[in-house]
Amino acid sequence: MSDKKNTFLFPSQPFLSGKPYWVQLVVLFFLTLFCMILFSATSGIAARIIYGNDILEAPTASFYRFVQFFNAVGTFLVPALLFAFLLERKWFSFNLACRSIHQPAVVALILLLSFALLPVIGLLVTLNGMIHLPDSWAAVEQWMTKHEQASTLVLETMLNDTSVAILLLNLFLCAVLPALCEEFFFRGTLQQLFQRWFGNAHVAIWSTAFIFSAIHLQFGGFFARWLLGAYLGYLFWWSQSLWLPILAHLLHNAISILLQFFISQSGITLPQETSLSAQLPVALLSLSLCAGLIFMVHKLLKSREPETTE
């Protein structure tokens, strides 16, 4: 009798093993939805206990940081790990988090790329701002614009304190945590699933990058984030390790936060907008540099297999 119970609770095969890919995708979707609702409700209750019932009327930077932690972990990291366990009964195998890379030259190139990409991303944001959805989608565009403005306000509130202690906390919450959680979900889970399903790495990379950008609900930076997602996807594919895109994602976020911090500390006032004609030469030069650096990264990763640790 006990053997039958154990077989029911712990079947010989993982729950998702051998299931069609569309079934796996549906399970991932509902798993993500469930975790998002659960963690959102939990953080909401906890926030009212800690900050008081009227916190939503006048939210503080501390409250935003609290919610940011729960949202990142609950929406991305927990569903990704649970999906990996349901698929292979291992937490860090399917998502290739069990593999590491010991190539200092690659790490150095990724750091250079994080700076070199900034003008390209800036140009894409400018071009994105010139594009508008059809009139029939005007309401959607307005809603996404309002969401983007609200997200920007939240970020500015979190980064407004210029003390070193808060800077370190912001780097963890806005750079380290999103990089870790989002890469486990998008590259480590969704891209892996798409690649097995479609049998084409390029389709998997660009499809995942599209969803990665769309899920942020920020139309103004859609194409820039799509390109960034593809860049992270190729790093994941070439290295066969989740830690390289995590590093690249972390550096991209951290550089933006640090630049804003040092600009604020120095008292420099930057122009609100830069003309397209002024951005274009710098962005084209930057794009050429990025192409060369990416070629070098690809060559180095191709010449050496990543170390596997089971």
Task: Walk me through what this model shows.
It is built from ten helices and two strands. The protein has one domain (2-308). Strands 1-2 form a two-stranded antiparallel sheet. With 310 residues, the protein is mainly alpha-helical. The chain is globular, with a radius of gyration of 21 Å. The mean pLDDT is 86.
List keywords for this structure.
single chain; 310 residues; mainly alpha; two-stranded antiparallel ribbon; 75% helix
Gross morphology = globular
Q: How many strands, what sense, and barrel or not for the largest sheet? A: 2 strands, antiparallel
Read across the widest sheet, the strand sequence of neighbours is: 1-2
Return the structural class.
Answer: mainly alpha
Give the DSSP E fraction (strand runs of 2 or more residues).
under 5%
**Radius of gyration, rounded?**
21 Å
- Secondary-structure element order, N to C: HHHEHHHHHHHE
Q: Flag low-confidence runs.
A: none
Number of strands: 2
Helix content: over 70%
What is the number of domains?
1
List the helices and strands and how they pair.
Blueprint (H helix, E strand, L loop, with lengths): L1 H8 L11 H31 L9 H28 L10 E2 L3 H26 L8 H22 L4 H35 L2 H14 L7 H18 L3 H24 L9 H28 L3 E2 L2
Antiparallel strand pairs: 1-2
Summarize the structure.
This protein is mostly helical and 310 residues long. Helices cover 75% and strands 1% of the residues.
